[in-house]
Each structure stands twice: as structure tokens, then as C-alpha cells.
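Service request form, structural biology core

Requester: graduate student, group of Dr. S.
Request type: structure prediction, single chain
Budget code: on file
Notes: please return the result as C-alpha cells.

Sequence provided:
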Amino acid sequence: MLPETTNLSIRIDRGLKDEADKVFNALGMNLTTAITVFVRQAVRQKKIPFEIALNTDDAGQRITMSEAMAVSERIWQASVKNGTDKMTTEDIDAEIAAARGERGSEA
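Core staff response, request fulfilled:
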């Protein structure tokens, strides 16, 4: 036996609906199915099932891949300069443990 259903009426920009229809049709579903998937996930997770954030033009919040690569290169060059580029994970773990020990003794 199928569960009882109900109708849901919403207002949405026609262009947005048309674009959504194209996306969901390409995924093999219609808008009703897509909305049902969204609602099921929200109920399961007890939250909106994706991040909602303000878009920002703040250059400090987003960097390009080339900027990320440049930062990575600067970090690598600094590690070569101070000799940490040859550290093993065991060396790194030992330094972390030592720093935690010093921090704990300062308390």
C-alpha cells in the first residue's frame, strides 16, 4: 500500500523552475521527486542537507588555484630553507608531542 500523499503549492520564478527541470530531468527525475529527496534528507539529518552561506566578494575568503599553488610553493621553499623538508612523520609527531609537553608544563 502506498503512503498517503498531499499536494504542496509553492511560488517560484519561472526561469528558475525551467532550469531546475532541465537539471533534474538530466538526473532522471522530475521536480516533485527532487523536492521529495530534499525533504527526506532534511528529515533524516534534522537540518538543511547542504551548506547555506552568503556569497562574498571578500578576496580574503576565496583564492584561485594559482594563488594556492603559489602559497604552497612559498611554504615548501621555507621548509627547505629551515631544514624541515626532510622531516619524517615520526619527526613531526615528536615535535608536536614535545610542544604539547612544554605547553602542559607552563599551566
